[in-house]
Write a structure and sequence with these properties.
Blueprint: E1 7-14, E2 17-24, H1 37-59, H2 63-81, H3 88-95, H4 104-125, H5 132-142, H6 181-192, H7 201-215, H8 222-236, H9 248-253, H10 255-268, H11 271-308, H12 314-326, E3 329-331, H13 332-339, H14 343-355, E4 359-361, E5 370-373, H15 374-381
Antiparallel strand pairs: 1-2, 3-5, 4-5
Amino acid sequence: MKRELQGRYVTVSTVGEEVKAYLPSPLPPSPPLAVDGALQAKLDQAMLELGCLGGMSGLLPDVGQFLYMYIRKEAVLSSMIEGTQSSLSDLLMFEIDESPGTPLDDVHEVSNYVAAINYGMKRLADGFPLSLRLLREIHQVLLAKGRGNKQFPGEFRRSQNWIGGSRPGNAAFVPPPAAAVPECMAQLELFLHDRQTVTPVLVKAALAHVQFETIHPFLDGNGRLGRLLITLLLCDSGILSQPLLYISYYFKLHRPFYYELLNEVRVSGEWEKWLDFFADAVIASARQAIKVTRSLHKLAETDRQAISNLGRAAASVLQIHQAMLAHPIAGARNLVTFTGLSPATANKALRQLEKLGIVEELTRQKRNRLFRYRRYMDILNAGMELPE
């Protein structure tokens, strides 16, 4: 449904030139959303897929182990969109104090994203509302280390920013003036809390994401926090009990269309077209997450069965296997710490896992050996390749 401009342009002077900055109208859209039968069916399907994904966590024997890796996968994917080169393996090696294969700034950004998700989820679990204060706190964690740590973490911007281009005059988009950011964000908070009108959660997540990206309230980290906002809303509402949905991959796959839709929303109010795309993103991402979860669970059970046939050695080998479900790249010393086994017992167990083809050594050295849970990592890495 085409509407008028969903905001207004204001003239700002920045870096020596005058440009038109876009000031969005508060949510919800006006006139109201026109959700026809086809779009409603797609939104219902997206909710059904989210319900299936949420139910998966109840079937897992140790959801914490799977969640540990899911969060890291989303962190890598979301950071890849911003141009980092860090892989999942780089992050896991960094976390056990091993040298990653990419620049430390890249790995710091991904590690910060993991910390930001965990921080946000803990605050929500402790009863803190999803609010501007929480978003600023999460942003402070997100930019704690790496390239963005000089960009005023946790503070709304006090200067003009722009998206694309070498300067505001040739930018693809110029967000609201800095002076308007606090009021824009205050209006977004009212929408999140259903102060104006009650909005279904999935629709709210879709609309709030666009509004956040349009306001671009921080000097850095807006893309990552805008995508994280979707997950936080779904978890805060109880749609998901754990942050198992990683939507960044779908946005990256369809990046040109994604940006085209954001612009169409701003210029002609094509909210329904955006909702259709967003529902597709949720459906595809939830199905992929379910597929990966089932594959990981099946692999873990198959490998446990193989280990249980080892006889007396099985107990210690199962402990190492259990540790590697949470840390699929780990050093022998790390595994001793994780399990409490003696170095001799842990190394003997690792040799057994190598014979079974479950783990492979990455270092080929006598000391400080590094191991990889090969098939587990292969499943996690599937679909991580992103187009340029």
